[in-house]
UniProtKB/TrEMBL annotation:
Keywords: Acyltransferase, Heme biosynthesis, Membrane, Pyridoxal phosphate, Transferase, Transmembrane, Transmembrane helix. Homodimer. Its cofactor is pyridoxal 5'-phosphate. Pathway: Porphyrin-containing compound metabolism; protoporphyrin-IX biosynthesis; 5-aminolevulinate from glycine: step 1/1. Pfam families: Aminotran_1_2. The chain crosses the membrane at residues 291-312. It comes from Komagataeibacter europaeus. It catalyses: succinyl-CoA + glycine + H(+) = 5-aminolevulinate + CO2 + CoA. Its EC number is 2.3.1.37. The lineage of its organism: Bacteria, Pseudomonadati, Pseudomonadota, Alphaproteobacteria, Acetobacterales. Gene3D superfamilies: Aspartate Aminotransferase, domain 1, Type I PLP-dependent aspartate aminotransferase-like (Major domain). Residues 63-408 form the Aminotransferase class I/classII large domain. This is 5-aminolevulinate synthase.
Length: 426
C-alpha cells in the first residue's frame, strides 16, 4: 500500500480525529520520563529532555519526588529483592526461553506458585505474565467453560476483569451497583437457580480507595449457589498479618473460591497469579490461552518476586510504616484545609473534577515543585470525578509531605487554574 493510499484510509482519518478530540477534552496523556533511584526511593531523576535515536539523553539534572507509584512498600528497590534478581540472571539467564509447556518450568516458578497458594490458604497457584492477563484469561476461560454461566460483576471492576468477562463465549453478564449487596442479592435472586454463577469483585478499589464487604459477598454466594472471584491486586502485601490482602485481614480467605493478585504493586516486581483449588488451577493451566500461548515470566523476575513475598510475609514493619505515613499525610492535608477523599484504604484521592484542570495541576506540581502526581481522568474514572491519586509509602518523609501540602495549598487556591493555560500562570 502506497503512502497516499495509507493517508486516505478511513482508519487513519479516524485516528487523527480521535486524537484531536482527546486533546480538546484535556485527556491526552504523555509519558513523563523518570528514572527511579533505587537507593533513594521515592526520589526519581528527571532528564531535561527525552532520548531519541538521534539525541542521547541529557545528564540527569533534576530530582523528583513521586507520589503515584503502585510500588506501595518500595519492595522493587529492596536490596534483598534486587540481589535475588541478579543471582537468578547469573544462574538462569535473562529470559525464560519460551512458554512453560515448550521450554520447561523453572523450579523458581513452582516455588513462587506454592508461596502464593500458601499465602492465601489455597491448594495451588498459577503465575501469569501480568495481573491484567491473570484476570482476563481466568475469567474468560471459566465463563466459557460451560453453557449458561451468569457473571455478576461489580460496576467498578477493573478493565482487565471486564475484558475477560466480555470475552467469554455464551455467558451472560449482570452488573450490580458498586459495593451494593442489596442490589447484588436482588439480582442473584432473580437469576435461575440451576445455572452456574460467578461473582467477580475486588477488595480495594484503586481509584476511590474503598473496600468491599468480602464476608457479605461470600455469604450471598453460598445462599444462591455462586462461586466467588476476588481481585486482591491493590491489597496483597498491604493488608493482613502476612500481606495476604483484605481477605486475610478479615479472616475470610477460606470463603473465597478464587483469589487473584499481582506481584507488581505491594510486592514491587512484576506478574500476576491466581490461587484456588488444585482442580481449578489445573483446569486453567491446561485451558487458559493467556497462560498457554505466551512466554513465561523471566526467572529473574520470579526470583525477585519470591524474595519480596517472603520478606513481606515475615516483616510487618513495612505495612505498619505505610499506614502510619498515610495517616500522617492525611492529618497534614486536614490541617492545611486541602480537600481529600477519606477512604478506608491506603489511597488518598485529591478531587479536582475537571480533566483540563487536573492535567494542569499535575503539570505545575512537576514543573514548579519537582513533585510527580498522576492526573486520573476519563476513561479511568467517570467525567466530572477527575482527581490526583496519591499513595504515601513508608519512605515518604515529613519534609516531602510538607512540600506536597505547600504546593497543593498554593495551586488549589489559584481560582482561575481551570480556565488559564499553564504557561500563563507564573
Amino acid at each position: 500500500m502506497s503512502s497516499n493510499q495509507v493517508d486516505g484510509h478511513p482508519f487513519f482519518r479516524f485516528c487523527r480525529t480521535a486524537l484531536e478530540n482527546i486533546r480538546a477534552q484535556g485527556r491526552y496523556r504523555q509519558f513523563t520520563p523518570l528514572a527511579r533511584q533505587a537507593e533513594r526511593y521515592p526520589l526519581y531523576d528527571q532528564p531535561e529532555t527525552q532520548a531519541t535515536p538521534s539525541t542521547p539523553a541529557c545528564p540527569q539534572d533534576r530530582e523528583v519526588v513521586v507520589w503515584s507509584s503502585n510500588d506501595y512498600l518500595g519492595m522493587g528497590v529492596d536490596p534483598v529483592v534486587v540481589e535475588a534478581a541478579i543471582q537468578a540472571i547469573h544462574e538462569h539467564g535473562a529470559g525464560a526461553g519460551g512458554t512453560r509447556n515448550i521450554a520447561g518450568t523453572s523450579p523458581v516458578h513452582t516455588a513462587l506458585e506454592a508461596e502464593m497458594a500458601d499465602l492465601h490458604g489455597k491448594e495451588a497457584g498459577l503465575l501469569f505474565v501480568s495481573g491484567y492477563v491473570s484476570n482476563q484469561a481466568t475469567l474468560q476461560t471459566i465463563l466459557s467453560s460451560m453453557p449458561g454461566w451468569i457473571c455478576f460483576s461489580d460496576r467498578l471492576n477493573h478493565a482487565s476483569m471486564i475484558a475477560g468477562i466480555k470475552g467469554a463465549r455464551g455467558s451472560t453478564t449482570v452488573i450490580y451497583e458498586h459495593n451494593d449487596l442489596a442490589d447484588l442479592e436482588a439480582k442473584l435472586a432473580a437469576a435461575p437457580r440451576d445455572v452456574p454463577k460467578l461473582i467477580a469483585f475486588e477488595s480495594v478499589y484503586s481509584m476511590d480507595g474503598d473496600i468491599s464487604d468480602i464476608a457479605g459477598t461470600c455469604a450471598l454466594a453460598r445462599k444462591y449457589g455462586a462461586i466467588t472471584y476476588l481481585d486482591e491486586v491493590h491489597a496483597v502485601g498491604l493488608y493482613g498479618d502476612q500481606g495476604g490482602g483484605v481477605s486475610e485481614r478479615d479472616g475470610v480467605a477460606d470463603q473465597v473460591d478464587i483469589i487473584e493478585g499481582t506481584l507488581a504493586k505491594g510486592f514491587g516486581v512484576h506478574g500476576g497469579y491466581i490461587t484456588a483449588t488444585s482442580d481449578i488451577v489445573e483446569y486453567l493451566r491446561l485451558s487458559a490461552s493467556g497462560f498457554i500461548f505466551t512466554t513465561a515470566l523471566p526467572p529473574a523476575v520470579v526470583a525477585a518476586a519470591l524474595a519480596s513475598v517472603r520478606l513481606v510475609r515475615k516483616d510487618g514493619w513495612r505495612r505498619e510504616r505505610m499506614f502510619e505515613r498515610v495517616n500522617t499525610f492525611r492529618e497534614k492535608l486536614r490541617r492545611a484545609a486541602i480537600p481529600f477523599t477519606m477512604t478506608p484504604s491506603h489511597i488518598v484521592p485529591i478531587p479536582v473534577g475537571d480533566a483540563q484542570r487536573c492535567r494542569e495541576l499535575s503539570d505545575r506540581l512537576l514543573n514548579d515543585y519537582g513533585i510527580y502526581a498522576t492526573p486520573i481522568n476519563y476513561p479511568t474514572v467517570p467525567r466530572g470525578t477527575e482527581r490526583l491519586r496519591l499513595t504515601p509509602g513508608p519512605f515518604h518523609t515529613d519534609e516531602m509531605m510538607d512540600e506536597m501540602v505547600t504546593a497543593l495549598s498554593h495551586l488549589l487556591r489559584i481560582n482561575d487554574l481551570a480556565a488559564q493555560p499553564v504557561a500563563a500562570m507564573a
